[in-house]
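Example 250, ligand iron/sulfur cluster.
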Amino acid sequence: MAKIIRASGAKTNVPSVPKKPPKRGAKAVPKPKKSPKPKPWTQAEIHEAFSRFRKANPEPKGELEHLNPYTLLVAVVLSAQATDAGVNKATRALFAVADTPEKMLALGEDKVRDYIRTIGLYRNKAKNVIALSQKLIDEFGGEVPRTRAEIESLPGAGRKTANVVLNMAYGEHTMAVDTHVFRVGNRTGLASGNTPLEVELGLEKVIPPEFMRHAHHWLILHGRYTCLARKPRCEVCLINDLCRWPEKTV
Ligand code: SF4
């Protein structure tokens, strides 16, 4: 997945660099008006937004191809700073020969590297795939563990990886914040934050439990196909009447 980029909608929350005082006699420059803080969403509005996402796509699916929790974990680790499509292209052949930690170790680092050399940072990622496979065998009986702390302890896996795996493989109500979710959370005003963790915790706080199973995918897909980074497609957006972004185009 691509690197987190701060959404332009979040700019207003970021402390600015202090300016030098004006020189004597210099014309006073009028202070820029602070844009008013958007009105927080009501619970009814949040319910309405997610009801619309659910109606449009009742069973959203992630786009990373995988065969089981282990291959999902590997795919997510490989997706750091890469697109899902690019990862899928490489993993189709890799997972056909190695869909368990044991088979991955038998394949060995050099061969894994060959399979994934079209993905950015492939050398380091091949190392991590081998090391995490070894750790799964040594410490977790060859299974992908079910807690965030345990998944985060694996080489190459961070909080986002753990949240994706817990949600997709085990149905947990986690919120993985990638670049799309980060942007949508900030722009819409659903959960503003300067870091992925702030947005994650903010979203978890406001999204009703009945939507949490799929909320992560609805927001990712919304960011990927509608609320685009450069040119959001506000005119076809399902929640354009609810969105708080001052720059929305409807
Ligand atoms: S109205 Fe525009 S900015 Fe707001 S969520 Fe929809 S696409 Fe994004």
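Summary: Confidence is low (pLDDT under 50) at residues 1-20.
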